[in-house]
Write a structure and sequence with these properties.
By secondary structure, this protein is mainly alpha-helical. The chain has one domain. Helix content is about 80%, strand content about 0%. The N and C termini lie far apart (about 120 Å).
């Protein structure tokens, strides 16, 4: 039992990652799909990884176009997992020459790196949709603000024209009349 725990301990997992020449930051955060799928593939749980991808794809997204945009990436990820499985579980690998064994390992690493790339693309699509949603929300808020400002300025102009303009006209006419009367009194006409 202790050997089983030792085989799948986080230290062993990190050691396996470094042996493959993969940067641990490529795995992403532990709560992301990328981390979940890559760890399953590293632990040779291929069917679980494929099922997790299918469940992720079938889960309803808040963005209507998300599934359409990521469908080809999901399918490619599934194909890559099958390719990794075939390379890792190649029958009679010990009977191959070292060069062929190394070639299989290199192909495995290439497929694994491509899987990382595809999972990042899926995350990028999600981030892009979030940004697009945020931008559209900003546009709506700005449009409402501009509309409210236009209504306020229109109300202010109408109020000035109907109320303050008439009062201002009366005040200015009275001031002009007093000024003209004062000027005529000064000239004694």
């Amino acid at each position: 039992m202790s050997q089983f725990k030792l085989a799948f301990s986080p230290e062993n997992e990190t050691k396996r990652i470094f042996e493959m020449g993969i940067d641990p930051s490529d795995f992403g955060k532990p709560d992301q799909l990328r981390y979940k799928i890559l760890v399953m593939v590293m632990e040779e749980q291929y069917e679980e990884a494929i099922e997790a991808l299918r469940v992720f794809f079938q889960t309803e997204s808040v963005f209507p176009t998300f599934n359409q945009r990521v469908e080809r990436y999901i399918n490619h990820c599934i194909d890559l997992i099958y390719a990794i499985k075939a390379k890792r579980n190649f029958p009679g690998i010990s009977q191959l020459t070292r060069a062929k064994q190394q070639e299989l390992r290199d192909r495995f690493k290439d497929h694994f790196n491509e899987l990382i790339f595809m999972l990042r693309k899926i995350e990028k699509v999600e981030r892009d949709l979030e940004l697009e949603d945020a931008r559209s929300t900003i546009y709506v808020v700005r449009a409402l603000w501009v509309a409210a400002l236009a209504l306020l300025l229109t109300w202010f102009a109408v109020e000035i024209y109907r109320g303050l303009a008439v009062t201002s006209f009366v005040v200015l006419e009275e001031a002009f009349t007093k000024w003209v009367d004062a000027a005529l009194d000064f000239m004694k006409i």
